[in-house]
Amino acid sequence: MPKKRSGGGLSPTQQAAKFLGVSVLAGAVLAGIALPAVGALGLAAKGSVESFDELPANLKTPPLSQRTTILDAEGGQIATVYSRDRTVVDLKNVSPYMQKAIVAIEDSRFYEHGAVDLKGVLRALNKNVQSSGVSQGASTLTQQYVKNVFVEEAGDDPTKVAQATQQTIGRKIKELKYAIQVEEELGKKKILENYLNITFFGEQAYGVEAAAQRYFSTHAKDLTLPQAALLAGIVQSPSRYDPVNDEAEATKRRNTVLKRMAEVGDISEAEAAKAQQAPLGLKVKQPKNGCITAAKGASFFCKYVERVFLSDPVFGKTKEERAKVWNQGGLTIRTTLQPQAQKSVQDSLKDHVYKSDKVAAAATLVEPGTGKILGMGQSKPYGYGKNETEYNYSVNSSMGGSNYGFPTGSTFKPFVAAAALEEGRPPNQSYPAPYEMPYPATVQTCSSKPWTNQGNDKLENESESEKGPYQLRKAMELSVNTYFVQMLADIGMCPVVKMTDKLGVVQGNGDKVPEVPSSMTLGSTGLSPLTMASAYAAFASRGMYCTPVAIESITQTVGGAKKSLEVPKSTCSRAMSEKTADTVNTLLSGVVDSGTGQQAGLSGRANAGKTGTTDSRKNAWFVGYTPNLAGAVWVGSATQKVEMTNITIGGVYHSQVYGGDTPGPIWRDAMTGALEGKEAPPFNLVDIPNPPPPAKDPGDKNDDGNGDGNGNNGGNDGGFLSGLLTNGGTNGGNATNGDGGTFFQGQTNGNGNGNGGGRG
User: Can you spell out the DSSP letters for 193-245?
Assistant: First the structure.
């Protein structure tokens, strides 16, 4: 006589053992396979009961993986990403038709039996004996739910999925034990809710809400009778009954479900007949999974957000832990992307560079003082086809960018200037700066071993007319190479290294910028637009550098409950004094006002920036900012094989590409749109005194126009023409505000601007 537990009745384990012992033949159906000769049945039953008792007591149900939604800063959807497209809903938000349809076709006695339906088992056994095979199963809805839990736990691991679905006695015994537990703990309504949320409906749709969206572009709560019957019919074989690929088979299956609903009394015969005559009425919504589907041209930013999540320890100590959270999904990620700024970036890139061009362009906008990435885009779209790429040219290689970044050219020079100012050099520092010169014999590094010019390497300026002496303002405006190499030799490389460290400046591969003069002055080392925009943002914020951030907040939904996740924060620190930053802002304001960046200048607001062009014109840059927005634009070839001479970009022919004429206008238009309607604060500019005039020759009585540039003809009124006519001297004054000529660049012999190179 079987033992009874206190309180009467058999325990769940004893019930299961009794069930298995009394109806061993039913066990064959439970396993979904045909057992061999009857002589083996006793052994099978004994082994099954022992395995049953050895199973863990509780079913561990992993949180259901759901879709993750990525939003912009204003709550607009950028993209959805998921390993499984699922949105969990409460049973009250599922159409009653859907609830009845799934029960009718999958387990019509669901509300009458326990974890196992013995009548159903015997009925299935009889059917299978008649067919000499396994033509009908007997799993209850609860057992099916448990099996789906096993599959969900297996994730995308094919081996684990195979184990979770293998047709063996052992797996069925495990399924049975947990089904009994689930029945006792959850109750019918909750089991039905869980089943509808976990089961696969085909076409990448997991759960009834995703299925309703996929096939009918509606919500689960709004499903009609014919729609509900169609979805319920798909579950048994999503591939066979897929209405998208086989409408006839799906219709036949739907009508079977409707007939069954009438048989069990859920609907009338008339309702069933009417619904059977209805067309399928599909309104298929194509699955949009992943950053490739992102709106607003934000695919690359979307991938950057994903990379941040998978790499930042704030989301998990190990790569595996972070990946598990990401794949589980259910995240609502609000990002820093500002819709107005992003649209402006994309519009500007589209206007100036075609995706079919030989070169590409990338642009990134960052908010000074916060590090927030407000816009990120590039001319070649995200994808894997012709004129597409999966590489994000705006970021470092660890975040999906190019291997090394791109050489920045003269956009590196402001870092040298900032380092020199921090070292105490005056803002009107002067150096001879000839047109051509050898690199210094030695330059001090951060180590005890100086850099030496072993190959007697030389450098030169862009134009033979660029020969000094120059002071800092004019050297910056003209981007005089020899000036900044002499400045580097004066202060040594270590102050520049310390400055770039504080500004987060690293190569595209994450390494520090090498301590060689070409890298430390002329930008021969590859950096990313995000790195440059973030570094220049420190100038805009008067010396405060903030690490870039892309995520504002994350809410995760698990089991119907929502919780907030910690997100990475920007770390802000002082990179230089306010005075140094203000001086750099003054210098770089001159670049867009009267220097190489005039084509990039903004109207109606304070702005500053720097052009950059590398050897053989393989890269062109403009990096600039206002007090409330910084941006970097790169134009070039990702392979670094295209020399931008005699080239057409965006429908415009260029004999030679410069930082001011190609990336400059992209920056200008992107910034203009991003800042439209925003406040226009001023910089805290400083007064940079002119160098003292040279001593006059006592015998020279005709000084006007030959001395300080501020004589009767060399100053504000004369401009280019006056300077030319009076032959202003090389060491003339710095009449940077001359109004005479707006289209001619001053020459080295003065022409109204004693130091040359500015607008007359």
Answer: HHHHHHSB-STTBBSHHHHHHHHHSS-GGG--HHHHHHHHHHTT-TTTT-TTT
Nearest to 380 by CA among 403, 357, 400: 357
Q: How far apart are the first and last CA of the chain?
A: 112
- Of the candidates 599, 603, 595, 540, the residue with the CA atom closest to the CA atom of residue 572: 540
pLDDT tens profile 18-65? 444 334 434 444 443 333 333 333 334 444 444 555 555 567 676 788
Tokens of 323: 């990946």
What pLDDT does residue 199 have? 94
Residue where the block lists tokens 């550098």: 545
- For 411-464, the three-class secondary structure string (H helix, E strand, C coil) is HHHHHHHHHHHHCCCCCCCEECCCCEEECCCEECCCCCCCEECCCCCEEECCCC
Dist CA 581 CA 585 (whole Å):
6
73/368 Cα distance (integer angstroms): 16
Q: Which of 605, 574, 575, 571 is nearest to 589 (CA)?
A: 605
Single out the residue of 449, 305, 298 nearest to residue 377, CA to CA: 298
Mean pLDDT of 512-538: 97
> Does 727 have pLDDT greater than 50?
no
Report pLDDT digits (tens) over 166-211. Answer: 777 777 777 888 888 888 888 899 999 999 999 999 988 999 999 9
Nearest residue to 344 (alpha-carbon basis) of 680, 662, 677, 676: 676
How large is the average pLDDT for residues 115-133? 61
**Rounded to the nearest 5 degrees, what angle is found at the Cα of 384, between the Cα atoms of 379 and 389?**
30
Token duo for residue 91: 């049973």
Q: Among all chains, which residue has been given the structure tokens 């504002």?
A: 552
| Whether 424 contacts 403, CB under 8 Å | no
Q: Give the amino acid at 129.
A: V
Residue 335 has, within 13 A of its CA and on its CB side, a CA count of 28
